Amino acid sequence: MPPGLDKLQHIVVLMMENRSFDHMLGSLKAVNPKIDGVTPDLSNPDSSGNPVKAQPLAEFQAQLQPDPDHHFPAVDLQIFGGDTSASRKPNMQGFVKSYFNQQRDLQHSQKIMYYFAQKDLPVLTTLALEFAVFNRWFASIPGPTICNRAFAHYGTSFGRVDMNLLYINEPFKSIYNRLIDATPKHTSKLYYYDTASSTMEITNLLQHQPELFGTYQQFLDDCNKGNLPDYSFVEPNYSDHDTDSGEETANDQHPDHNVQHGEIFIASIYQAIKNSKLWPNTALLIVYDEHGGIYDHVVPPACSPDQFTASANDTGTGMPFAFDRLGVRVPAILVSPWVQKGTVVDRVFDHASIPATVTKFFVGEYSPRSPRETNADVFIEPNSGTIDPARNLLSLDTMRADCPDFDV
Amino acid sequence: MTLIHVPRPPRNAYDPNRPVSALLKAQVEYLHDAERRLPSHYRGEIYINAIKTEGEAAKYIREVTEAIHEAHEEAAAARTRVAPKRKRVIEIAAVADERAERKRTSTAQKRSKKKTSGKSGRKK
After folding, report:
1. A126 → closest Cβ in B4, B37, B65
2. Chain B within 8 Å of A168 (Cβ-Cβ)?
3. Which end of chain B is more exposed for a tag (fewer CB within 10 A), N or C?
4. Contact residues, A window 56-85, toward B, CB-based 8 Å cutoff
5. pTM of the model as a whole
6. Interface residue B51 vs chain A (CB under 8 A)
7. Which region holds residue B79: left if phi is over 0, alpha if psi is between -120 and 50, else beta?
8. Which residues lie below 8 Å from residue A356, measured CB to CB, with a gap of 6+?
9. pLDDT tens digits, B31-60
C-alpha cells in the first residue's frame, strides 16, 4: 500500500462559489503548459459578432455587476452559443452574448472574458502549482449553485436544475449519513462559517441532524486539537454581516464579493491543517461549485444520465434534460504532502466524485447510489485491493517537507 | 519552505448593505421553510419578503439557524427528563433494601440526636 494512502485518515472538502477554471487558474498555462488554461487565440463573439479575447484583466470586486446569469437557460446559451437546433454542438461561444443580455451594454459584456493574472491569486495559483490541479473537473449540472452542491452531498440533485427548495428523495442517503450509519461507524461534519452564514443547500440536514454541523472556528479548533472527523465539508461565509465580535466579510468569492477575502479563507483552511498533527493524514480538496456564468473554454463532456429527468418546463430551454452532460469546468486542487509537486490530472471529474470517493475510501462498496455517482471517477483510490500507480495521486514514498506556507 | 504573502483586501470591501443575491434569497427561503416547522416559541418576527440586504439576510439566517439548534437541544433535554428509567426486579429489591437501610440509619441517628440534645438540655 502506498504510504500516502496508508496514512490517510481525514478527507476535507472546501467548496467555494461561482468562478470558472479559466477565470481563476487560466493564467497558469504560461507557467506549466500541461495546465489547460488560457491561450491567446481564445475568444467569444460579442452581440455584434466581433471577437472578444480572454484577457488577464479580472478585478477582485466591482467588475461583475450584475451577477452573471448562471441559471440553466443562460448556461445553455453560454455552452451552445445560442444554437437550439437538434444537431447542435457545444462550442463555448455564448458567454459574452449571455452577459450582454443582462444589461445590453456591449463594453460591459466583454468583462465576462476576463481572467486573473497569476500574481493576483497567490494562494490558489500556488496550491495549483505545488500540488495536484485537475484539468477536467466540471460542475455536475450546467446550472446554478443549489443543484450543483447537492451532487457533492448526495451524488444527485434528485432531478433539480434550479434554485428551488431541494426535497430529498429516498433512496439516496447523504454522504454524512452513509458514514455515521456505517459499520464500523465513521465520523463526519459540515462546517459552516458561522450561524449568520449557515449552510447553503442542505437545510433539510440542518433541520433533522443539527449535530452534524459545526462552525469555521470549530474546524480550526478541531484541527488544532487533532480532532478532525474522518470527513469534513467546509462552507465559506456567504454574506457581509455584523457579529457579536465585529464585522465578518463574505469570503465565498461569489461575484460581487471580494476575491481576496476568499484567498485568505482558503489559505487559513490549508494552514490549519498543515500546522496540525493531522497534516500527514489529511487530504484537502479545494473546488468551486459552478462557474458563475464566467468564461471557460473547455467543452463540458457528455456523461451517463442520472435516473431523473428535468422537464422542458423546469429547464426553461424548451428541452428536457436527462443529466447527461456536465456543467462548465471549475477550479479543483487536491492538497496533501504525499502529492507530487506539479501534478496535473486529465481524468474527468464532477461533484458526484466527492461522495463517490469518500464512500469508497471509508465505507467500501455501497448501495444504493445514484447512477451519476456510480459512474463518477474517484480522486483518491480506495485503500484496499490493488492500487494502480497511474491513478494514485498520493503517490510519494516519503512525505514532502517543502510545502509552502502562507502568512495568514 | 517558502512563505507566501497573502495581500489584505481594502477595508471598504465590507458592505452589509449590499443587495441580497439570488443565492442568499434562496437560502432565506429554505430557512423560512425550516422555521415554519419549528415550535411556535422558536419562530421569529422577521418578514422575509422585506429582507433586502446581506446584513438583513444574515440576521434572519442566524436567528433561524440558532433556533433550530436550540429546539433540538430542548427536545433532547426533555427526552432525558421524561424518559422513565424502568427498573428490573433485582433493582427494585435493591432499592427496597437501601430504603430499609436508610430508615435504620436515620432512626439510629435520631435516637443519638435525642440523647445529645437531652444532654445539652440538661447542661442548660
Report:
1. B4
2. no
3. C
4. 60-61, 67
5. 0.91
6. no
7. alpha
8. A155, A369, A373, A374, A376, A377, A378
9. 999 999 999 999 999 999 999 999 999 999
> Residue A21, Cβ neighbours under 10 Å: how many?
32
On whether any CB of chain A is under 8 Å from the CB of B22, the answer is yes
CA atoms of B102 and A321, how far apart (whole Å): 76
Superfamily of domain A3-29+117-375: Alkaline Phosphatase, subunit A (3.40.720.10)
CB A228, CB B58: distance < 8 Å: no
Q: Which helix (H) or strand (E) holds A372?
A: helix A371-375
Q: Which residues contact residue A376 at a Cβ distance below 8 angstroms, ignoring those fewer than 6 apart?
A: A155, A349, A350, A352, A353, A356
- Using the Cβ of B52 and the Cβ atoms of chain A, whether some distance falls under 8 Å is answered with no
Q: Write out the three cell numbers for A222.
A: 478541531
Distance separating alpha carbons of residues A335 and A285, to the nearest angstrom:
6
Packed helices A259-274 and A216-225: angle between N→C axes, nearest 10 degrees: 20
- Name all contacts of A38-45 with Cβ < 8 Å and 24+ positions apart: A38/A115, A38/A297, A42/A297, A43/A113, A44/A92, A44/A93, A44/A94, A44/A95, A44/A96, A44/A97, A44/A112, A44/A113, A44/A295, A45/A93, A45/A96, A45/A97
Query: How close A149 comes to chain B (CA, Å)?
Result: 12
Does A267 sit within 8 Å of B3, measured CB to CB? no
- Cα–Cα dist A89/A82, whole Å: 10
Question: Hey, what amino acid is at B64?
Answer: V
> What would you report as the CA-atom Rg of chain B, rounded to the nearest whole angstrom?
32
What DSSP string describes A342-354? Answer: TEEE-S-B-TTHH
Q: Convert the pLDDT of each residue in A115-160 to its tens digit.
A: 999 999 999 999 999 999 999 999 999 999 999 999 999 999 999 9
| Cell digits of residue A59 | 478585478
C-alpha gyration radius of chain A: 20
Q: How many CB atoms lie within 10 A of CB A309?
A: 15
